[in-house]
Amino acid sequence: MRDGTIVIAGASLAGLRGAEALRANGFTGRLVVVGDEPHPPYDRPPLSKHVLTGEIPPGATTLPGVGALRAEWRLGTPALGLDRDGRALHLADGGRVAFDRLLIATGARARPWPMPGEARLAGVHTLRSRDDATALAAGLAARPGRVLILGAGFIGCEAASSIRALGLPVTVVDPAPAPLAGALGSVIGGFVAGRMEAAGVDVRLGARVTHLEGDRAVRRARLEGGGTIEADLVVVALGAVRNTGWLAGAGLDADEGGLSCDGACRALDAAGRPVPGIFAAGDVARFPHPLYGNRPVALEHWGNAVAQAAHAARAMLDGPDSVEPYGELPAFWSSQFGLNIKSLGLTEGADAVAIVQGSPRTGRFLAVYGRAGRTVAAVSVNAGRWLPAYEGPIRDGALFPPITGGADQPRPEPMPPGLPAHEAA
Amino acid sequence: MLPDRAAASPEPGRAAAVLPPDTGKLAGESWMRVVVDLNRCQAYAQCCYAAPERFVLRGDEILVYDPAPPASDRAAVDRAVQACPVRAIRVEHEDAPTERPA
Fold first, then answer.
1. Closest A-chain CA to B62
2. CB distance B32 to B93 below 8 Å
3. How much is the ipTM here?
4. Of the CATH numbers 3.40.50.740, 3.40.640.10, 3.30.70.20, 3.40.1000.70, which one belongs to the domain with range B36-92?
5. B58–A338 C-beta distance less than 8 A
6. Residue A109 confidence (pLDDT) above 50
7. Partners of A172 in the beta sheet?
8. Which CATH architecture has domain A338-425?
């Protein structure tokens, strides 16, 4: 099936790389790419880093690959609905685009501050899109007296690092006991906290902001249990929700956690059956991961968007039976406070972490995560070249810890990783 | 657009006027598109030697690069792509005309 019409809903990394993979694998038909933002596909990782510091203009982040696609672009035109039986998308401009096959790659959006009136105060930002970054960078250029960041996940911490590099006072508030605790646990997160504090960030852990206050513009945040933080710029960094609202009524298994799909990236209906001709990839796709007991996961990872979109493209062209179940090893990176943090595998549910090479004392180490005695993930801090050696042990579920006698760590001592309590599976 | 390496703390918005926000182009000048797969990057720094104006390592292994170098830097950027031992750099030289919606 290399002709007909393929529509891609979503014009970010997964949509672009899916379109490229379709063409690279010989699709000669009509290709339509629908995007809610007016911009051609752009790269998000710089937005929380060098775009905020002003070193890279937001408009410079457009991704390579747009030029040669022979696609019709419907940018700035959100998809409003899916007519599953009629095989068509309804667009915000009133248009209707019929398809033979559809790739859903609508990604995710920043989780907003839950009180809409407070979220509308001037000076309250989220950070997900290029326009978000442009607005935030403009707010920073006005040299606010203090920047408050709500949430110490990767976006919150990267933003804190960038904004400190501008010389602005920064406070980060998170209910968790450490930054990055949800992804890395409080052991490794505690190391990062030390770097944040050394960089002059006011890190408030185990704390929660209940309200943002101000007249027209935000002036302060009120803390649970009393107390306030004066701030005239707030970055709400509370994670992301998947863009599945437009699929309401289409009978697919979709919610704020993602659109369920199978190992061939086929979207599943409410009864869990694959829907012919409708596929999903990237942040929006919740798929059973074969390396983790087919647990459904939706990954906000750059590498996943690239690999899963290519996988979906092959299944779309050659048929879902022609591909192995999608099982790319999860991987991501983050840079902040002079640290290059890279990760392989999934830490969720890990019951132990051990530093097996290097040492936090030297600022360069590799930590491995175990679950029930098996290796499930590895994280390098300023030690990226050590990381690929752990891909095999993670894929194989090797005994944990997978090595002893590493540099600086002759006898690794596993300890509880300090990850949040695992939700009932 | 990358700051010189001595500039620890660039002025906010200092580069914001370099490119217009949507097109990424200035009239009469064309720009390449560069993206580095930073999962793959191992900080071998060969790109930094090949195109020092466009690729910089910060700290031990944080690669900072210019995602939209001017076309006049094509030879250096191509050298960087070729020099990368883990093949992590992708470049697109020309924006083919984007087709209009049907």
1. A340
2. yes
3. 0.95
4. 3.30.70.20
5. yes
6. yes
7. A149, A203
8. 2-Layer Sandwich (3.30)
